[in-house]
Description:
By secondary structure, the chain is an alpha/beta fold.
Amino acid sequence: xxxxxxxxxxxxxxxxxxxxxxxxxxxxxxxxxxxxxxxxxxxxxxxxxxxxxxxxxxxxxxxxxxxxxxxxxxxxxxxxxxxxxxxxxxxxxxxxxxxxxxxxxxxxxxxxxxxxxxxxxxxxxxxxxxxxxxxxxxxxxxxxxxxxxxxxxxxxxxxxxxxxxxxxxxxxxxxxxxxxxxxxxxxxxxxxxxxxxxxxxxxxxxxxxxxxxxxxxxxxxxxxxxxxxxxxxxxxxxxxxxxxxxxxxxxxxxxxxxxxxxxxxxxxxxxxxxxxxxxxxxxxxxxxxxxxxxxxxxxxxxxxxxxxxxxxxxxxxxxxxxxxxxxxxxxxxxxxxxxxxxxxxxxxxxxxxxxxxxxxxxxxxxxxxxxxxxxxxxxxxxxxxxxxxxxxxxxxxxxxxxxxxxxxxxxxxxxxxxxxxxxxxx
Length: 426
Protein backbone atom coordinates (compact mmCIF):
# COMPACT_ATOMS: atom_id res chain seq x y z
CA UNK A 1 0.00 0.00 0.00
CA UNK A 2 2.43 2.65 -1.26
CA UNK A 3 0.40 5.80 -1.88
CA UNK A 4 2.44 8.82 -2.91
CA UNK A 5 0.67 12.08 -2.09
CA UNK A 6 2.19 15.54 -2.25
CA UNK A 7 0.51 17.34 0.65
CA UNK A 8 1.54 20.69 -0.85
CA UNK A 9 -0.84 20.07 -3.75
CA UNK A 10 -4.61 20.06 -3.57
CA UNK A 11 -6.04 16.54 -3.52
CA UNK A 12 -9.06 16.31 -5.81
CA UNK A 13 -12.29 15.45 -4.02
CA UNK A 14 -15.57 14.09 -5.34
CA UNK A 15 -17.14 17.12 -3.68
CA UNK A 16 -15.51 19.33 -6.33
CA UNK A 17 -18.04 18.09 -8.87
CA UNK A 18 -20.96 18.29 -6.44
CA UNK A 19 -20.27 21.91 -5.44
CA UNK A 20 -19.85 23.09 -9.03
CA UNK A 21 -23.02 21.26 -10.05
CA UNK A 22 -25.05 22.83 -7.24
CA UNK A 23 -23.68 26.33 -7.89
CA UNK A 24 -25.08 26.11 -11.41
CA UNK A 25 -28.60 25.77 -9.98
CA UNK A 26 -28.54 27.72 -6.70
CA UNK A 27 -27.51 31.15 -5.55
CA UNK A 28 -25.62 29.67 -2.60
CA UNK A 29 -24.34 26.30 -1.42
CA UNK A 30 -23.90 25.33 2.23
CA UNK A 31 -21.24 22.65 2.85
CA UNK A 32 -21.60 20.91 6.18
CA UNK A 33 -19.64 18.02 7.63
CA UNK A 34 -17.22 17.00 10.36
CA UNK A 35 -14.26 19.13 11.35
CA UNK A 36 -11.02 18.57 9.51
CA UNK A 37 -12.60 16.78 6.53
CA UNK A 38 -11.46 19.45 4.06
CA UNK A 39 -14.56 21.64 3.57
CA UNK A 40 -12.70 24.95 3.52
CA UNK A 41 -9.78 23.70 1.44
CA UNK A 42 -12.13 22.28 -1.18
CA UNK A 43 -14.36 25.35 -1.23
CA UNK A 44 -11.31 27.60 -1.70
CA UNK A 45 -10.54 25.87 -5.00
CA UNK A 46 -13.83 27.20 -6.38
CA UNK A 47 -14.31 30.49 -4.49
CA UNK A 48 -12.89 33.78 -5.77
CA UNK A 49 -12.93 35.54 -2.39
CA UNK A 50 -12.91 34.28 1.20
CA UNK A 51 -14.19 35.49 4.58
CA UNK A 52 -12.79 33.57 7.57
CA UNK A 53 -15.20 34.12 10.45
CA UNK A 54 -12.73 32.52 12.87
CA UNK A 55 -9.85 34.82 11.95
CA UNK A 56 -8.29 35.52 15.40
CA UNK A 57 -7.52 39.19 14.65
CA UNK A 58 -10.83 40.01 12.98
CA UNK A 59 -13.41 37.68 14.54
CA UNK A 60 -14.87 40.21 16.95
CA UNK A 61 -15.12 42.86 14.25
CA UNK A 62 -16.81 40.41 11.93
CA UNK A 63 -19.32 39.36 14.61
CA UNK A 64 -20.13 42.99 15.37
CA UNK A 65 -20.58 43.80 11.69
CA UNK A 66 -22.76 40.72 11.24
CA UNK A 67 -25.13 42.10 13.90
CA UNK A 68 -25.16 45.67 12.58
CA UNK A 69 -24.76 45.39 8.80
CA UNK A 70 -24.25 41.78 7.62
CA UNK A 71 -24.40 42.79 3.94
CA UNK A 72 -20.92 44.35 4.29
CA UNK A 73 -19.45 40.90 4.92
CA UNK A 74 -20.88 39.69 1.62
CA UNK A 75 -18.84 42.14 -0.42
CA UNK A 76 -16.21 40.46 -2.55
CA UNK A 77 -15.72 38.63 -5.83
CA UNK A 78 -18.21 35.81 -6.40
CA UNK A 79 -18.52 33.04 -5.60
CA UNK A 80 -17.60 34.23 -2.11
CA UNK A 81 -16.70 31.69 0.55
CA UNK A 82 -17.85 32.39 4.11
CA UNK A 83 -16.08 29.93 6.39
CA UNK A 84 -17.75 28.85 9.67
CA UNK A 85 -20.71 31.07 8.84
CA UNK A 86 -22.77 29.63 11.71
CA UNK A 87 -20.80 31.83 14.12
CA UNK A 88 -23.06 34.64 12.84
CA UNK A 89 -26.43 33.11 11.89
CA UNK A 90 -27.53 36.53 10.59
CA UNK A 91 -25.41 35.83 7.55
CA UNK A 92 -27.87 33.16 6.39
CA UNK A 93 -30.70 35.65 5.90
CA UNK A 94 -28.29 38.20 4.41
CA UNK A 95 -27.12 35.65 1.84
CA UNK A 96 -30.67 34.51 1.08
CA UNK A 97 -31.81 38.13 0.62
CA UNK A 98 -28.86 38.96 -1.66
CA UNK A 99 -29.56 35.89 -3.78
CA UNK A 100 -33.19 37.00 -4.09
CA UNK A 101 -32.22 40.54 -5.08
CA UNK A 102 -29.55 39.57 -7.61
CA UNK A 103 -31.52 36.58 -8.92
CA UNK A 104 -28.28 34.87 -9.92
CA UNK A 105 -26.69 31.50 -9.27
CA UNK A 106 -23.21 30.69 -7.96
CA UNK A 107 -22.86 33.63 -5.57
CA UNK A 108 -21.90 32.12 -2.19
CA UNK A 109 -20.35 29.07 -0.59
CA UNK A 110 -20.94 28.68 3.16
CA UNK A 111 -19.02 26.12 5.21
CA UNK A 112 -19.59 24.94 8.78
CA UNK A 113 -18.79 22.08 11.12
CA UNK A 114 -21.96 22.31 13.21
CA UNK A 115 -25.61 22.74 12.37
CA UNK A 116 -27.30 26.01 13.23
CA UNK A 117 -30.44 26.41 15.32
CA UNK A 118 -33.24 26.86 12.79
CA UNK A 119 -34.88 29.35 15.16
CA UNK A 120 -31.98 31.73 14.51
CA UNK A 121 -32.84 32.14 10.82
CA UNK A 122 -36.06 33.56 9.42
CA UNK A 123 -36.19 31.70 6.10
CA UNK A 124 -35.15 28.16 5.13
CA UNK A 125 -33.57 29.34 1.88
CA UNK A 126 -35.57 26.78 -0.10
CA UNK A 127 -34.96 27.22 -3.80
CA UNK A 128 -32.06 29.60 -3.20
CA UNK A 129 -29.61 27.71 -1.01
CA UNK A 130 -28.51 24.12 -1.52
CA UNK A 131 -27.30 22.05 1.44
CA UNK A 132 -24.71 19.34 0.87
CA UNK A 133 -22.72 17.19 3.27
CA UNK A 134 -18.99 16.56 2.95
CA UNK A 135 -17.44 13.52 4.58
CA UNK A 136 -13.92 12.30 5.16
CA UNK A 137 -12.07 10.91 2.14
CA UNK A 138 -13.07 7.77 0.29
CA UNK A 139 -10.40 5.26 -0.69
CA UNK A 140 -10.61 6.45 -4.31
CA UNK A 141 -9.94 10.04 -3.25
CA UNK A 142 -6.97 9.00 -1.11
CA UNK A 143 -5.66 6.92 -4.05
CA UNK A 144 -5.96 3.60 -2.21
CA UNK A 145 -8.67 2.44 -4.64
CA UNK A 146 -7.62 2.15 -8.28
CA UNK A 147 -11.16 2.97 -9.46
CA UNK A 148 -11.34 0.18 -12.04
CA UNK A 149 -15.07 -0.27 -11.31
CA UNK A 150 -17.26 2.84 -11.51
CA UNK A 151 -20.58 3.00 -9.67
CA UNK A 152 -21.98 5.29 -12.36
CA UNK A 153 -20.98 2.77 -15.04
CA UNK A 154 -22.85 0.02 -13.18
CA UNK A 155 -26.01 2.11 -13.15
CA UNK A 156 -25.53 2.81 -16.86
CA UNK A 157 -25.56 -0.92 -17.58
CA UNK A 158 -21.85 -1.67 -17.89
CA UNK A 159 -21.75 -4.73 -15.64
CA UNK A 160 -18.79 -6.53 -17.22
CA UNK A 161 -16.53 -5.62 -14.35
CA UNK A 162 -12.89 -6.53 -14.05
CA UNK A 163 -9.95 -5.35 -12.02
CA UNK A 164 -7.77 -6.35 -9.13
CA UNK A 165 -7.19 -4.60 -5.82
CA UNK A 166 -3.65 -4.39 -4.51
CA UNK A 167 -4.91 -3.88 -0.95
CA UNK A 168 -4.31 -6.69 1.53
CA UNK A 169 -6.29 -7.48 4.67
CA UNK A 170 -3.50 -5.83 6.65
CA UNK A 171 -3.80 -2.71 4.48
CA UNK A 172 -7.54 -2.51 5.08
CA UNK A 173 -7.03 -2.78 8.85
CA UNK A 174 -4.59 0.13 8.71
CA UNK A 175 -6.93 2.22 6.53
CA UNK A 176 -9.78 1.72 8.99
CA UNK A 177 -7.55 2.75 11.89
CA UNK A 178 -6.13 5.77 10.02
CA UNK A 179 -9.45 7.12 8.78
CA UNK A 180 -10.15 9.39 5.85
CA UNK A 181 -9.09 12.81 7.13
CA UNK A 182 -6.87 14.52 4.54
CA UNK A 183 -4.40 15.61 7.20
CA UNK A 184 -3.67 11.99 8.13
CA UNK A 185 -2.77 10.68 4.68
CA UNK A 186 0.96 11.42 4.88
CA UNK A 187 1.42 10.61 8.56
CA UNK A 188 2.89 7.37 9.90
CA UNK A 189 0.11 5.16 11.22
CA UNK A 190 1.00 5.65 14.89
CA UNK A 191 0.93 9.43 14.45
CA UNK A 192 -2.39 9.24 12.58
CA UNK A 193 -3.81 7.15 15.43
CA UNK A 194 -2.79 9.86 17.90
CA UNK A 195 -4.49 12.44 15.68
CA UNK A 196 -7.74 10.46 15.69
CA UNK A 197 -7.53 10.06 19.46
CA UNK A 198 -7.01 13.81 19.83
CA UNK A 199 -9.96 14.41 17.50
CA UNK A 200 -12.21 12.23 19.66
CA UNK A 201 -10.93 13.82 22.86
CA UNK A 202 -11.75 17.30 21.55
CA UNK A 203 -15.26 16.15 20.62
CA UNK A 204 -15.79 14.87 24.17
CA UNK A 205 -14.14 17.70 26.08
CA UNK A 206 -14.92 20.79 24.03
CA UNK A 207 -17.06 20.43 20.92
CA UNK A 208 -19.90 18.63 22.74
CA UNK A 209 -20.28 21.73 24.94
CA UNK A 210 -19.78 24.46 22.36
CA UNK A 211 -22.12 23.02 19.74
CA UNK A 212 -25.12 24.62 21.45
CA UNK A 213 -23.77 26.06 24.69
CA UNK A 214 -25.10 23.26 26.89
CA UNK A 215 -22.66 21.81 29.43
CA UNK A 216 -22.19 18.07 28.95
CA UNK A 217 -20.02 15.49 30.64
CA UNK A 218 -16.82 14.29 28.98
CA UNK A 219 -16.96 10.75 30.34
CA UNK A 220 -20.63 10.35 29.42
CA UNK A 221 -19.81 11.45 25.87
CA UNK A 222 -16.98 8.91 25.65
CA UNK A 223 -19.20 6.14 27.06
CA UNK A 224 -21.81 6.85 24.41
CA UNK A 225 -19.20 6.88 21.65
CA UNK A 226 -17.75 3.58 22.92
CA UNK A 227 -21.19 2.01 22.86
CA UNK A 228 -21.87 3.30 19.35
CA UNK A 229 -18.48 1.92 18.30
CA UNK A 230 -19.33 -1.52 19.70
CA UNK A 231 -22.63 -1.48 17.82
CA UNK A 232 -21.29 -0.12 14.53
CA UNK A 233 -23.16 -1.55 11.52
CA UNK A 234 -25.96 -2.88 13.73
CA UNK A 235 -29.52 -1.73 14.41
CA UNK A 236 -28.92 -1.43 18.16
CA UNK A 237 -31.69 0.58 19.79
CA UNK A 238 -31.31 3.60 22.04
CA UNK A 239 -32.26 1.29 24.91
CA UNK A 240 -29.25 -0.89 24.12
CA UNK A 241 -26.95 2.15 24.04
CA UNK A 242 -28.49 3.35 27.31
CA UNK A 243 -27.83 -0.01 29.00
CA UNK A 244 -24.19 0.12 27.91
CA UNK A 245 -23.71 3.64 29.21
CA UNK A 246 -25.42 2.88 32.53
CA UNK A 247 -22.63 0.45 33.37
CA UNK A 248 -20.41 3.49 33.98
CA UNK A 249 -23.11 6.09 34.65
CA UNK A 250 -26.06 4.58 36.47
CA UNK A 251 -27.89 7.89 36.74
CA UNK A 252 -28.18 8.70 33.03
CA UNK A 253 -31.76 9.11 31.80
CA UNK A 254 -33.13 8.22 28.36
CA UNK A 255 -33.80 11.91 27.66
CA UNK A 256 -30.20 12.73 28.55
CA UNK A 257 -28.95 10.09 26.11
CA UNK A 258 -31.19 11.54 23.41
CA UNK A 259 -29.73 14.99 24.06
CA UNK A 260 -26.17 13.69 23.65
CA UNK A 261 -27.02 11.81 20.47
CA UNK A 262 -28.59 14.93 18.97
CA UNK A 263 -25.48 16.95 19.85
CA UNK A 264 -23.20 14.35 18.24
CA UNK A 265 -25.31 14.45 15.10
CA UNK A 266 -25.03 18.24 15.04
CA UNK A 267 -21.26 17.78 15.15
CA UNK A 268 -21.48 15.30 12.25
CA UNK A 269 -19.91 12.54 14.35
CA UNK A 270 -22.91 10.22 14.02
CA UNK A 271 -24.39 9.37 10.62
CA UNK A 272 -26.87 6.52 10.97
CA UNK A 273 -28.02 4.66 7.87
CA UNK A 274 -31.76 4.85 7.26
CA UNK A 275 -33.88 1.87 6.28
CA UNK A 276 -35.24 1.42 2.76
CA UNK A 277 -38.93 0.68 2.44
CA UNK A 278 -39.81 -0.52 -1.07
CA UNK A 279 -43.11 -2.04 -2.13
CA UNK A 280 -42.88 -5.83 -1.73
CA UNK A 281 -44.67 -8.65 -3.52
CA UNK A 282 -45.42 -10.34 -0.19
CA UNK A 283 -46.74 -9.19 3.18
CA UNK A 284 -43.28 -9.32 4.69
CA UNK A 285 -42.74 -6.71 7.41
CA UNK A 286 -39.84 -4.33 6.74
CA UNK A 287 -37.75 -3.32 9.73
CA UNK A 288 -37.37 0.46 9.88
CA UNK A 289 -34.59 0.84 12.47
CA UNK A 290 -31.53 2.81 11.40
CA UNK A 291 -28.13 1.15 11.30
CA UNK A 292 -25.55 2.70 13.60
CA UNK A 293 -22.59 4.37 11.91
CA UNK A 294 -20.08 7.02 12.86
CA UNK A 295 -18.94 9.46 10.19
CA UNK A 296 -15.63 7.57 9.84
CA UNK A 297 -14.76 4.04 11.03
CA UNK A 298 -11.54 5.36 12.58
CA UNK A 299 -13.62 7.01 15.32
CA UNK A 300 -15.12 3.64 16.20
CA UNK A 301 -11.69 1.97 16.09
CA UNK A 302 -10.25 4.62 18.39
CA UNK A 303 -13.09 4.30 20.90
CA UNK A 304 -12.48 0.54 20.96
CA UNK A 305 -8.71 1.10 21.41
CA UNK A 306 -8.18 -1.13 18.38
CA UNK A 307 -4.90 -1.47 16.52
CA UNK A 308 -4.57 -3.13 13.09
CA UNK A 309 -3.39 -6.29 14.83
CA UNK A 310 -6.45 -6.24 17.11
CA UNK A 311 -8.74 -6.15 14.09
CA UNK A 312 -6.96 -8.99 12.35
CA UNK A 313 -7.34 -11.17 15.45
CA UNK A 314 -10.98 -10.16 15.90
CA UNK A 315 -12.54 -10.70 12.50
CA UNK A 316 -16.06 -10.03 13.75
CA UNK A 317 -15.19 -6.47 14.80
CA UNK A 318 -13.03 -6.09 11.70
CA UNK A 319 -15.99 -7.06 9.52
CA UNK A 320 -18.32 -4.54 11.15
CA UNK A 321 -15.82 -1.69 10.82
CA UNK A 322 -15.09 -2.74 7.24
CA UNK A 323 -18.81 -2.50 6.50
CA UNK A 324 -18.79 1.00 7.98
CA UNK A 325 -15.86 1.96 5.76
CA UNK A 326 -17.74 0.66 2.71
CA UNK A 327 -20.87 2.61 3.68
CA UNK A 328 -18.77 5.77 4.03
CA UNK A 329 -17.34 5.30 0.54
CA UNK A 330 -20.69 4.39 -1.03
CA UNK A 331 -22.24 7.54 0.43
CA UNK A 332 -19.46 9.63 -1.10
CA UNK A 333 -19.68 7.95 -4.51
CA UNK A 334 -23.48 8.01 -4.56
CA UNK A 335 -23.58 11.72 -3.78
CA UNK A 336 -21.69 12.50 -6.98
CA UNK A 337 -24.17 10.63 -9.17
CA UNK A 338 -27.32 11.84 -7.42
CA UNK A 339 -28.00 8.93 -5.10
CA UNK A 340 -28.73 8.07 -1.49
CA UNK A 341 -27.64 5.00 0.46
CA UNK A 342 -30.03 3.00 2.68
CA UNK A 343 -30.05 -0.46 4.23
CA UNK A 344 -32.75 -3.15 4.09
CA UNK A 345 -33.86 -5.74 6.62
CA UNK A 346 -37.17 -7.53 7.08
CA UNK A 347 -38.73 -9.77 9.70
CA UNK A 348 -37.47 -12.92 7.94
CA UNK A 349 -33.86 -11.83 8.42
CA UNK A 350 -33.33 -11.07 4.74
CA UNK A 351 -31.14 -8.00 4.35
CA UNK A 352 -28.94 -5.86 2.15
CA UNK A 353 -26.14 -3.92 3.81
CA UNK A 354 -26.61 -1.11 1.31
CA UNK A 355 -29.30 -0.04 -1.13
CA UNK A 356 -28.19 2.70 -3.49
CA UNK A 357 -31.19 4.62 -4.81
CA UNK A 358 -30.68 7.30 -7.45
CA UNK A 359 -32.90 10.35 -7.81
CA UNK A 360 -34.08 9.09 -11.21
CA UNK A 361 -35.42 5.85 -9.70
CA UNK A 362 -32.61 3.45 -10.54
CA UNK A 363 -31.34 1.32 -7.68
CA UNK A 364 -28.88 -1.40 -6.79
CA UNK A 365 -28.43 -3.87 -3.93
CA UNK A 366 -25.15 -4.39 -2.09
CA UNK A 367 -23.89 -6.89 0.46
CA UNK A 368 -20.56 -6.35 2.25
CA UNK A 369 -18.28 -9.29 3.05
CA UNK A 370 -14.72 -8.82 4.24
CA UNK A 371 -13.68 -12.31 3.14
CA UNK A 372 -14.72 -14.38 0.14
CA UNK A 373 -15.98 -17.41 2.08
CA UNK A 374 -19.51 -15.98 2.33
CA UNK A 375 -19.88 -14.82 -1.27
CA UNK A 376 -22.24 -17.64 -2.30
CA UNK A 377 -24.53 -17.00 0.67
CA UNK A 378 -24.52 -13.26 0.02
CA UNK A 379 -25.37 -13.78 -3.66
CA UNK A 380 -28.29 -16.04 -2.72
CA UNK A 381 -29.64 -13.43 -0.31
CA UNK A 382 -29.39 -10.64 -2.87
CA UNK A 383 -31.29 -12.68 -5.45
CA UNK A 384 -33.98 -13.54 -2.89
CA UNK A 385 -34.40 -9.88 -2.01
CA UNK A 386 -34.57 -8.90 -5.69
CA UNK A 387 -37.40 -11.42 -6.19
CA UNK A 388 -39.25 -10.10 -3.13
CA UNK A 389 -39.42 -6.51 -4.39
CA UNK A 390 -42.42 -5.55 -6.49
CA UNK A 391 -40.85 -4.43 -9.77
CA UNK A 392 -44.26 -3.28 -11.01
CA UNK A 393 -43.70 -0.37 -8.61
CA UNK A 394 -39.92 -0.08 -9.09
CA UNK A 395 -37.53 -0.69 -11.96
CA UNK A 396 -35.52 -3.88 -12.01
CA UNK A 397 -32.30 -3.35 -10.02
CA UNK A 398 -29.39 -2.02 -12.05
CA UNK A 399 -27.09 -4.49 -10.31
CA UNK A 400 -26.62 -6.88 -7.41
CA UNK A 401 -23.14 -6.46 -5.94
CA UNK A 402 -21.02 -7.98 -3.19
CA UNK A 403 -18.24 -5.68 -2.00
CA UNK A 404 -15.29 -7.62 -0.60
CA UNK A 405 -12.00 -6.71 1.01
CA UNK A 406 -9.37 -7.98 -1.39
CA UNK A 407 -8.80 -9.77 -4.67
CA UNK A 408 -10.45 -9.55 -8.07
CA UNK A 409 -13.53 -7.85 -9.48
CA UNK A 410 -15.67 -10.16 -11.60
CA UNK A 411 -19.18 -11.05 -12.68
CA UNK A 412 -20.54 -14.37 -11.48
CA UNK A 413 -22.47 -16.72 -13.75
CA UNK A 414 -25.68 -15.73 -11.94
CA UNK A 415 -25.04 -12.07 -12.78
CA UNK A 416 -24.05 -10.98 -9.26
CA UNK A 417 -21.02 -8.71 -9.23
CA UNK A 418 -18.10 -9.20 -6.85
CA UNK A 419 -16.00 -6.06 -6.36
CA UNK A 420 -13.16 -5.33 -3.91
CA UNK A 421 -13.49 -1.97 -2.17
CA UNK A 422 -10.02 -1.17 -3.57
CA UNK A 423 -11.46 -1.23 -7.12
CA UNK A 424 -14.49 1.00 -6.57
CA UNK A 425 -15.10 4.65 -7.47
CA UNK A 426 -18.12 6.87 -8.21
